[in-house]
Amino acid sequence: MQLLTVLFIGLVFHCIYLFSIFDIYFRTPIVHGMTPHRVEADAPAKRLVLIVGKSFYDLISGDGLRADKLFESNFRAPYLHSLIANNATYGISHTRVPTESRPGHVAIIAGFYEDVSSVTKGWKMNPVEFDSVFNQSRHTWSFGSPDILPMFKHGARDTSKIETFMYDSHFEDFSKDAIELDKFSFDMFDELLKNATNDHILHERLHSDQIVFFLHLLGLDTNGHTYGPHSESYYKNIKYVDKKIKELESKLNEFYNHDRKTAYIFTADHGMSDLGSHGDGDPDNTRTPIIAWGAGINFPVKALEDKILEDYSKTWPASKFKRNDINQADVAPLMQASLIGIPFPVNSVGEIPFAYLNSSEKFKSLSLLTNAIGIFLQFETKKKSKNQTDFFFKDFKPLISLDSNKFQKHVETLIEFGKYNESNKISLDIIEKSLEGLKYFQTYDWILLRTIVSFGYVSWMIYSTLSTLELYGNPNLNGKGENKTLKIVIGLFLSCVLLLILWLKTSPIQYYIYASFPIFFYFKIIQSRIQLRFNLIKGIVVPLSVYCGGLIFLVGSYYDRFYLAFGCFILSFWSFLKKSSMLLSVSWFITLNLLAVSFFRPVVKIENVFDLNFGVLCILLTSALGLIYIKRVINHYNPFCIIQIIVFILNSYIVSDTIQNLSSKAGLPLLNQYLIFSLSLLFWNRRSIENYYDRTLIIFLAFATPYHTLTISYETQFYSLYSIALFCWYLIEKEQIEYLQNEKPKASSTPYRALKIEDLRISWFFIFFINVAFFGTGNIASLSSFQLNAVYRLTTVFNPFIMGTLVSFKILIPFFLISSILSLISKKLSLPPFCLFLIVISSVDVMTLIFFFMVRDSGSWLEIGTSISQFIISGLFIVFLFILYVLSLLLMPLNDLKFKLE
C-alpha cells in the first residue's frame, strides 16, 4: 500500500509541477483592455483613396519559401525580380523559432510573436486570442489552407467580416503535385472577382477602403518537404507562383481601372533547410523574402558598392539594390498603419520599417509615435493589473513618472515644429523601455515561485528516498520514535508565513497548490521511521556524490550528444573490470564503441536507400547471432522467432517498393499501406514463449518491423547496436551475480534482498541507456524538424496528429527494450518489483531541478523551445518510467514464463 501511495503522490506531484514553468516563465504577456490607436493623418494609400474613394491591401504569403531560392536567380522568379529592379522595396524578414506556420502567420498578421504559453496548444482550428490585421480591417477575404485560415476567422471579434475559401484537408497529399494547392488559391481569387460582376453587394465591398485579400500558398512548403528546396519541383513551384502573381496584379489593375491604389507585400512565414525541413533555428529557416510594391511603397534604391551586405546575398542579382531587412513582426504595422490606415493591433510589438514607406517625414514620425503609444499602453495595463493585486507592489523605475498624455503631446509638438529626428528618438526610447517594463512585470513573481518549486523538488527527493529505504532498505535503518514537537511547530509557522504571503499578493489558486507540496513533504519527512546515523551517512557520501555527478554529466547530453559518445567509450572498458567471459567483454567493448560512433552522425537525415538496406542486413545479422546464442545455451529456439524474421523481411521488401513508388510520384499504393500497417502491428502471443531468450529476440524483431518502417537513414543500424548492447549488459550482470553467489552462497530464505549502495550503478546505467535511446539518432532540436518521409509509407495526407503519433512511437520503441532488460536484471538481482524504479524516480529530479533553472523565456525560439523540452522530458520521467515498467511486465512477464533465471 505504501508503494502505491508513493507512486500516486509522485505522479500527481510531477504532473502538477510540470505546469509551474508556464506560471513562472511562460505566463501569457497578452493584456486586454487597450484602445486601438491609428495614425491621425492620411496614410499614403488612403490619400489616393480620398481622390478615388477606394483603397485596399493585398497580402500574399508563400509558405516555406527561402529567401535565397527566390533572390539568387532571375530565371526562377522573373516578374518579382523585375519589381525589385523597378517598382519594389525588398529585403529579408527575419523570423523567430519555431519556424512553423502558426507562429509565422501570427507574427505577420498580428505584429506579435506567438506567446510562448501557446506551446501547450495545437495549431489546427485553434483561434488566435489577440488582435490582428484582419480584426482591424473593414473586410478580409482569405484563400488557402484549412490549417491557417480558421485561426484568424474564429479568433476575430466579428467573424462575418472575414471570409475563408479553403480546400479540404485531404487535398494536402504529399504524394501528389503540390502546385495544385496554390492553384486553388489563385483560382478562388479569380472566381471572387468574376462573381463581383453579378453580385452588387460583393462589388460594393470590393470597392470599399481598408480591405484585405490574403492568399496562403502551401505548395512551396509541401514540395520542399517532399522533394527538398533544391529539387526541380520546388523551383517549378517558384516559377508558377511568380507567373500567377503577375497575372493577379494584371487582373486587379483591370478590375480597378488602373487606379494605382493597391499595395502588395510578398513574404513567407518561414524558410526551409537544405533537407526540406523547418522548425529549428537554421538561418535558412529563419530568413524569408519580403517584397513590397504598389501604393505607399518606396521605389528601389541602388546599393553602394561598399554597402553590399554579407556573402549570403552579394551574388544575388537583386544585390544591386538596397536590401532592407526587417523583423517578421514589423510587417503588421507596415500594412496597417502605414499603408491602409487602420489602427495598430493592440498587442503588436513590431516597429514600422521606414525604408519601405514612400511618405513624408511627418507621417513617418506620427506613425512611430502611434507605434510607441500602443506598446506603452500594453505596459500601463500590465502595471495597473499588478498594482491592484499585489500588496507589496514595486513599480518599474525607468517609467515610474511617465504620463502617456504628456509624452504624446510633447512628441506631437516636436513633430509640428519639424523636429522629426528628436521625436523619433523619444518614441524609440519609449518603445524600448515599455518592452523592458512588460518583461519586468512578466517576471515579477519569479523569486517567490522559483523558491517554492525548488523546495518542492528537493523535499520530494528526500521523501521518496526515505520511502524507498523504508520499503526495500536494511531493516536496521528503522529507528525508534522521537519527540518531533519542535519540528512540527517550526513547520506550521513557516507554512502560515508562506500562505500569508501568497494571500497578500492575491495569488491564483495554483500558487497555493505548488506551495502545498513542500509543506506536505516536510511533515511526511519528519514522520519517517528511517534514522540515518552519522557513520552510515559517512559511508554513502562518496558513492552518492559519484551517482549525482553521473546525473549531472547526463544533463550535458541534452545539449551535446558528444557526452553520450564519451560515456559509451568509457563504459566500454567496464566489462573488463567484471567477472565476465572474454568473448562477452569484447562484444560489449565493440558494441559500445560502435554506438559511440552513432552520435557523430547527423541528427537531421535525408532518405538514404543504402543505409536502409544496410539496416535490414544489421537486423538479420543480429537475429542470426541471437539464434546461434539461444541454440548454444538451451539447445533449441522457438519457431516463432523464425516467423518474426520472415515478417520483418517481407515488411522490408514492401517498404522498399513503397519508397520506389513515392520517388517516382506514383503515390502510396493502398495495398502496400495496408500490408505495412498489418505487419508492423504483428506480435505473437506472449504465453506461447517458454523462455526469456526467445522472448527477448521476439521483442527485438517485433519492434524492428515498425521501427524500420519509420526509418529513412541509419536508425535501424542504431537499433541493432543498441539492442546488442542491452543484452550484453544483462549477460554481464548475470555472470557477475552468479560469480558472487558462488563465492558467497545465499544465506537468506527470503525471495528478495535489501537494497545496497551498489544498486545505484544499475540505476545510473538505466538512465544512461534511456538517454542513449533518445539521443542516439537525434536531439531535442531535431524533433521539431523531423523528416516527413518517415511517415509517407503509412500516410501521405497531411495530418499533424497522426504523423506526430507515428514519429513519437518510433522514438519510444528503444525504450520498450530497455524496460524489458531492466525487468530481467531486477529479477536476477533478487530485487523486489519497482525497487530500481523507485531509486531512479527518487534521484532523477536532480536533473529536473537543473533544467528548471535553465528554462529560458528569451532568446531565439529554438533556445526557448529546447529549454522547455528538457524540463518537460525530465519532469515527466516518473510518468514515463511508470508506463515503461508496466509495459515491461506485459512484454517480459517473468512470473508466467517457464524458466529460471538463476
Automatic annotation (TrEMBL):
Keywords: Endoplasmic reticulum, Glycoprotein, GPI-anchor biosynthesis, Membrane, Transferase, Transmembrane, Transmembrane helix. One of its GO terms (cellular component) is fungal-type cell wall. The chain crosses the membrane at residues 6-26, 447-466, 486-504, 536-555, 561-577, 582-600, 612-630, 637-654, 666-685, 762-781, 801-822, 834-855, 867-892. This is GPI ethanolamine phosphate transferase 1. Ethanolamine phosphate transferase involved in glycosylphosphatidylinositol-anchor biosynthesis. Transfers ethanolamine phosphate to the first alpha-1,4-linked mannose of the glycosylphosphatidylinositol precursor of GPI-anchor. Residues 436-860 form the GPI ethanolamine phosphate transferase 1 C-terminal domain. Belongs to the PIGG/PIGN/PIGO family. PIGN subfamily. It comes from Rozella allomycis (strain CSF55). One of its GO terms (biological process) is ATP transport. Pathway: Glycolipid biosynthesis; glycosylphosphatidylinositol-anchor biosynthesis. Its main location: endoplasmic reticulum.
